[in-house]
Amino acid sequence: MTGRPRMDAPVPEQPPASPDGTRAVRPPIDAGHWWRRLADLAARRRVPGASLGILRLRPGGEDELAEAAYGLLNKDTGVETTTDSVFQIGSITKVWTTTVAMQLVDEGLLDIDAPVCEVLPELRLADPDAAKRVTTRHLLTHTSGIDGDVFTDTGRGDDCLERYTAVLADVAQNHPLGATWSYCNSGFSLAGRVIERLTGRTWDEAMRERLFAPLGLRRTITLPEEALLHRAAVGHVSADGAEPSRARVWQLPRSAGPAGLIGSSAADVLAFARMHLTGGRTPGGARLLSEAGAAAMAAEQAELPDRRTLGDSWGLGWFRLTWDGRGLIGHDGSTIGQNAYLRVLPDDGLAVVLLTNGGDSDGLYEDLYREIFAELAGIATPAPIGPPAEPVTVDVERHLGTYERASSRLEVFRDADGTVLRTTVTGPLASMVPDTVKEYRMAPVEEDLYVARDPDTGHWMAVTFYSLPTGERYLHFGVRATPKVA
Predict the structure, then answer these.
(1) Is the dihedral of CA 303, 186, 332, 386 positive or negative?
(2) Which of 92, 112, 351, 450 could form a disulfide with 136 if both were Cys (CB 3.0 to 4.6 A apart)?
(3) Is 91 among the catalytic positions?
(4) pTM for the structure as a whole
(5) Phi, psi (5° rounding) for residue 50?
(6) What is the DSSP letter of 286?
(7) Alpha-carbon span 113 to 117, nearest angstrom
(8) With 0-12 CB in 10 A as exposed, 13-18 as middle and 19+ as buried, what is 124?
């Protein structure tokens, strides 16, 4: 499941050539236009507040940066969104954590193919063999098999990741080590602990010292007491499709930090993306990450059972995707009522980030990015997945049953109207969301591939059924692999 990284540089110095061999000349970014489009589309999608940033590198010239803001950071207080507002970027954090891990590789302090237990000899997992063999590469590519949604609160102290690592001893293995791919927050918390052990700093301090400060980021935080110093967004959630209202909880437990607790402004996120676009350098030319390290992060590392939801394959931290024949890297983030979207087009020196705090943010992302990439890069984004125009006949009987992992139970059953996927949020996460149970109507696309319709937004999502070579049955939904238990 995991391959050796390619060491080719991910970013050429020039825009791609047109068919006649000349370089494409891209139009300048019209910030006013995108400000208006953000306002129009966000209002239509009932998004309370949003911040948009677009960055283009101009070889030999000054970078272009356009920012736009819309709406309210908090519907209860009426504080308006501005371009310097701080939103939770959620799992985009994983790319930042990976970047620091790769800095440690550059420094000779970390071998990502060596067992994690060489750095953390105290590591215990439910599968003793996995505990002996799991590597940092497994963690950074979501192939460790550690159940990925363990949101145990281990406190606000600086020892939270140390205590979280101990909790993993009681966490069931979701799949055998390296056997498949399943999105794994737990693995990134464990990677954060590796960073702590090797740097002698907390994960929060390591992020500040190794990324935030060198990149000159003034509106990027990891802790709630830091958020108080900025115009910080709060999440908004919708129960049963109702108008978004302020979430009861602002942030996930501190132990989830390396997986998803960075908060940032759009411009700061783009400054981080710029470092990757330039092969690991700051705007002033200082090197934060080797060119080989940046290339390895963008290179294919793992295959995906579901190539329709996020990307074609996974790198180190980044996911990889193809739009209109062009290769991109990116990551999304989702916390409690806040969602973020980052896409980077290396061959055009283009990066786009959208930060939101509720409503139909996926719909807003699709609307905006379709227009932005068509206008600025001549790229047609792929159409969202949906049911086929003509119904197809498949055998659903072998897929019926219950699938379960930490924080989630999925049931596939039939009723008078067809096939249904029922999801139930369990464990600590259940107290943080308004709807713990949702039902999705399913439609077959082809054998073993279905789409499920979200009753709140109307969006369709891929549901993939598959077996491991050893015969175990899995359901892949929401970028997680869930084993069949009944």
Answers:
(1) positive
(2) 112
(3) yes
(4) 0.93
(5) -155, 155
(6) -
(7) 12
(8) middle
Is residue 244's pLDDT more than 80? yes
Q: Return the closest-CA partner of residue 187 out of 231, 230, 142.
A: 142
pLDDT digits (tens, 9 = 90+) for 66-120: 999 999 999 999 999 999 999 999 999 999 999 999 999 999 999 999 999 999 9
Query: Are 229 and 220 in contact, with CB atoms under 8 Å apart?
Result: no
Please give the Cα distance from 183 to 405 (Å, whole number).
12
Contact by Cβ (8 Å): 42, 71 = yes
Q: How many alpha carbons lie under 13 Å from residue 459 in its C-beta half-sphere? A: 18
- Domains of the chain plus CATH, in order, are 1-19+26-383 (3.40.710.10), 397-483 (2.40.128.50)
| Three-class SS state of 450 | strand
- Answer yes or no: are the C-beta atoms of 233 and 357 closer than 8 Å: yes
> Which of the residues 91, 144, 264, 313 is marked catalytic?
91
Instruction: Please give the Cα distance from 242 to 454 (Å, whole number).
Output: 14
> What 3-state class would DSSP assign to 328?
strand
User: Per-residue pLDDT for 9 more than 60?
Assistant: no
CB 101 within 8 A of CB 137: no
- H or E segment and range at residue 317: none
Q: Tokens 């501005």 map to which residue?
A: 82
The token pair that represents 10 in the structure block = 């991910």
Report the distance separating Cα 108 and Cα 481, nearest Å: 34
What three-state secondary structure class fits 405?
Answer: strand
Nearest to 403 by CA among 319, 315, 324, 466: 466
Two tokens, residue 322 = 């193809």
* Token pair of 198 as six digits: 């090797």
The three-state DSSP-derived secondary structure of 107-171 is CCCCCCCCEHHHCCCCCCCCCHHHHHHCEHHHHHCCCCCECCCCCCCCCCCCCHHHHHHHHHHHC
pLDDT of residue 21: 42
The Cα–Cα gap between 129 and 127 comes to 5
Q: Model confidence over 212-221: pLDDT tens digits?
A: 999 999 999 9
323-347: average pLDDT: 98
Task: Give the pLDDT confidence score for residue 18 in this predicted structure.
Answer: 45
Q: Give the tokens for residue 207.
A: 């992020």
